């Protein structure tokens, strides 16, 4: 055993470094796992926070990845201890995994703070696991590093590549339009998801992994190495070594996730055509860290960044292709002066060090600033009397001709109303109409599901219509596309103007000037709002976490965190357990 002074060098020393009754209890029960006495000699204790679950297929290989992190931790002289955290399977959970992002964040925060951990490795990947884990870790602020699941191998169907989600939306509309036999649709299912890993389009999982790498919160290439590539295990091993060094150097999450890191993340998000979901996740994470970040920042910071990465849903290729083309370091190198490459990273190096040796091996997948995929990318933040708290859209995934558009609203009061009437031959709708969906915000659904890319009416699909302007208080999958206006705030359930839009009202989208307007007089709007009454109200959840959530969730323009979770409480716990 080391002496008492050595043992108390790190936070875990308060638990394992005591030569008294409490120290006996803390060490003795851990020894039941077969740990020898000398691992309690004051070495860094590394928590490996694992969202492995067979109910989250995108994270189902993370037990194996954790073993490789442990190798690196042991080798560097640390003590690795793996612990589970609630997993959130995007394709499995109802009513939406987003409802539980903040619950995961609470669990991660308290698990880190309550345990004798000096640093933490976050293992996640499926959409909400990455932000949920980071938010929780940020409120404790220990040295923290991420290893992501990594993307699946490219999907394959009848000799061609198909992309997670993106081709589901396309195939589904093709079936409804009578262009694809149902048997073919069913056959595509097995070829789409054919390996471990996350969606291999630039969906939310890939976006959040890229954001993590751009912020310097992982080792280089974390975002793109395929889940089943041996190099992901190598990266996990090296991450284990790195977190031990981070603890010794006391490099905390807040020292890496600075305002400069968020700005880099937003610009990289634009260059890769990232998911709109990153907006709520980054706002929530910034809120935990006390970094000033506003909805407007997404529009302002991404205005000068073109789309450089040709990936679905904004382009053609998939994550495997992006990795072979050079991965995110090559993208960041191509961005040149658009990034602050002096920003620090977890390893102690700057982004400059990380991109110095990067090369682009496929100029079709990663373009140069002089030959981008599209000139306009990033996030448009819309304002107007229909969305006083803002709304977002993704221009790279929209139809350019619809970005300046005026049309009559076809209103659906709820998701059930949409499903009941969207294919009704009697629905009064044409290709110039604007579809409006209410009741799908954070409080209304509850949980703000990914239903904003609502299906087009079957009778218009049959006429060959491929896109329409759609407006809602919902989110949409990062794999989805279209001229879709999302995150309208305040949401309908909270009494925002969206609640009083009626079928037949004229709405104008002016993308160039970033406005979204309900074309009725102020007096009419105020009269309608005065008459409006909440249909169900937050009280519809009478108990448990969902009641807590609906009573405290912030609107989309604030990141949908729970109001009492904003900020942090640090790592200190004053009292002993016995
Ligand atoms: Fe898990 Fe897409 S469903 S990453």
Q: Can you describe this structure?
A:
It is a single chain. Helix content is 34%, strand content 12%. The strands form three sheets. An eight-stranded mixed beta sheet has the order 7-8-12-11-10-9-13-14. The protein has a four-stranded parallel beta sheet with strand order 2-1-3-4, with helices on both faces. Helix 4 crosses helix 10, helix 9 crosses helix 12 and helix 12 crosses helix 14. The longest helix has 19 residues. The radius of gyration is 24 Å and the shape is globular. The relative contact order is 0.11. The structure holds FE2/S2 (inorganic) cluster. FE2/S2 (inorganic) cluster (FES) binds next to loops.
List the helices and strands and how they pair.
Elements: H1 4-7, H2 13-16, H3 21-31, E1 45-50, H4 62-75, E2 79-84, H5 101-114, E3 119-124, H6 129-138, E4 144-148, E5 155-157, E6 160-162, H7 166-176, H8 182-192, H9 204-214, H10 230-248, H11 253-256, H12 259-272, H13 277-289, H14 295-302, H15 319-324, H16 327-335, H17 351-356, E7 380-382, E8 390-393, E9 404-412, H18 415-421, E10 434-437, H19 458-461, E11 469-472, E12 484-489, E13 506-510, E14 515-518, H20 522-531, H21 544-552
Parallel strand pairs: 1-2, 1-3, 3-4, 9-10, 10-11, 11-12
Antiparallel strand pairs: 5-6, 7-8, 8-12, 9-13, 13-14
Helix pairs in contact: 4-10, 5-6, 6-13, 9-12, 12-14
Bound molecules: FE2/S2 (inorganic) cluster.
